[in-house]
Each structure stands twice: as C-alpha cells, then as structure tokens.
Amino acid sequence: MTRSASFVVEDDGYIELSWLGNGGTKLSLECRHPDTKQRLVDTFSIPADISLKKAEGEEHGLRIIWSNDGHESFYSWDWLRAQSEGLRFPHETCQFDKTIATEPPTVDYQKVMHGDEGVREWTGNIRKWGFCFVDGCPITSEETQALIERIAFIRTTHYGGFWRFTSDLSTKDSAYTQLALAAHNDNTYFTDPAGLQTFHLLSHTNGGGGTSLLVDGFRAADILREESPEAFQTLCEVKIRGHTSGNEGIAIVPEHAFPVITLEDDKYWRTSRVTQIRWNNDDRAAMTGLSWQEIADFYDAARKWVEVLRRPDSEYWVQVEPRLLQSKSR
Q: pTM of the entire structure?
C-alpha cells in the first residue's frame, strides 16, 4: 500500500508527504488545540490502512481528503517546508580563539535591565559565541541576581541557587581555593549540567591574579577531529563519569556515563555538529565498566585533546573586575 506522495512546489522543488497510520501526518491544524497546540485526536483510533483520497494544491497550501472518513486536512506551504527541513532550534554559532580579546561580546547593563532587546542581545551573544560579558553591573549581590533573572529563574544545586563565595574552602571544591584551574566544564557530575553559568567579581582588593580563562570547546573539538580523527572518535564514544565528593554527606555522580564530546548525530562522527563538551579532569571519576583497551584509547585521546585546549591561540585570558559580569554556556 502506498503511504507517501510527492507534491511539486513551484520554484521550490518538491515536498514528500508520508503517513503510517499513526495520525502524525493526517493531523491537521484544526485537530490541534488552538492555544496549547496539542493533539485533540486519538492517534490510534485512525485506521492503520488509511490512504489519501484526494490532494489539491492551493495558493497558500495543500488540501487533502482522507479515504477512511473523508476527513479534510489543510497544510500551509510554509509549514510543510519547515517540516521537510526538520524542526530544530537555530544554531548559528561562531568559534573564537585568543584574538577575540580585541572585541569580546559585551552588552550594557542598562540595556539589559530596561528592555527585552538587551536580553535578546545578551542571550544571542551567548548562543553565538558561548559567552558574553555584561558591562556596568552594580557591585551588589541583589542587583547581580536581578540581572541574572532577566534571562530566567536560577537553578538550585547543592551549592545553592545564587550564592557568594571566596577562597576559604567553606565548600570543599578547588573553586574555593587560590589554585589555578585548567580549562574545564563545571557540573560534569550532574546528569543534566547547568546550561548557563554566570560569575560576577564583587571584590578584589590587595591581591593579585583574578584572570579568567575561556577556551572554545567546540573549536577545540573541530581541531581534534581534523588533526586526530581517531582521538576525536574515541572521545565521542568512550563514556566516563564525573563526581563531586569533597563535602561531608555529599557524593554526586551522574545517572550514567557520558562521552567528553556529544554530537548531534553520533552515527556520523566525521561530520556531525558538536552539541556539548563535558570535560573536567579534576572531577573525573574512576573509569569503571570499560575494557583495558578503551581506557588506553581514552588516555591517548585525552592527551591530544588537552594539547589542543592548552595551545596559546586557544586560550583567551581576561582580567575579571567588578562591574563586568561573565555568562558562559559552552
């Protein structure tokens, strides 16, 4: 039984429409709730042998009559084109290296606080570059929190939601020390890491240091894929766990292991888009459940990965200071 049909669209080639008796394609806009956009039809009440009785192209879309009950569906050409291209969020991203220091993505505090256009610019920069500064933020916890909440609510973890800290080891984590930290991702011990982190230096007096390191993990992954394909494939396939165990009564590991590099489609590791990096050598847990060969391959690949991360042209160093808030996502 034929369960697909192709329709020529002037100047746009053709659109292929398929149906499998599951109501996915039959479901027209009239069969969805006008406000919630959820289905109003019992998918499995539709006969499995449903077929197309009549299809007619109109100025604004495609009108179909189905054979089993004469139900009429209408699909706009814009909607059909969108479905044929695949539903996905826009992913315009740009990669950066140390040269971004000349013009880092930055938005003005007042613009963010007094209009949605400022929020759009802020989140757009984070989406595009993986980070963005907000310049001119008042040096108080209250106003910093209010700024962050212009994007969304604050996620609570075992550290709290919004919190202040200094290098006093009040929480047993290397971030609460004066140790220099290599390029890393936080939250590798969470099954679902925080998607966005924001930092604001409220005070820095009578001391040195205070530089922050940013490395584009997506760029590093693409370099590794080009220079060491086997190492890249290993970091996409071998799954490891992170952990946090320094605080009494707290031991957190993810529900399952994850690869260092996550792809949009891991079947096509040579070309698929990188969607997530999970790398924190300090928080890496014991490598259990892996063969000796997988462990050996992982360490060989990780050595090459770290070499890319630590190249001088990969590292963007910035002197953090009060009033300059930093948000990062990669």
A: 0.81
